[in-house]
Amino acid sequence: MTPSTLNTILNSAPMVIQGASKLINLIKEQSNTRPVEEEETQLTVENLKTDIDRLEARLAATDESNIEQIKLIEQLARQNEVMAESVGKSINRLNYLIVISILLGLLATFAFIFILLR
């Protein structure tokens, strides 16, 4: 790997960690906001309306949380894609360097044999 590739990976790592931390915190918040079981109350229209409003608010919060999680996952996917491209380019460069090294080694060997036979 070239130093520039390593720098790219190292510079991207904090963003990946930050995104993962945000996702973990969202999941923890979501699990911490579980409803507390309420005591049995009388079934009245007023109580049912209150329950419906509370459930709608929870659904909206869950939807917002899901949207945030999806955004974080998309961001992490983009960062992984950039890092994968960088690693792929590094592998290609390494392959070229290996081929060049082998060719130079063969050339040096032939030159050495040529000098010995002369």
Explain what this protein looks like in three dimensions:
Helix content is 87%, strand content 0%. The chain contains two helices and no strands. The model has no long low-confidence stretch (mean pLDDT 81). It has a domain of 31 residues. The protein is mainly alpha-helical and 118 residues long.
Structural class by helix and strand composition: mainly alpha
- Which percent band covers the strand fraction? under 5%
Uncertain runs: none
For the sheet with most strands, the description reads: none
Shape estimate: rod-shaped
Multimer state? single chain
Order of H and E elements: HH
The number of E-state strands comes to: 0
Please render the helix and strand layout as text:
Layout (H helix, E strand, L loop, with lengths): L2 H30 L12 H73 L1
Helix pairs in contact: 1-2
How is this structure best summarized?
Helix content is 87%, strand content 0%.
Features:
rod-shaped; 2 helices; mainly alpha
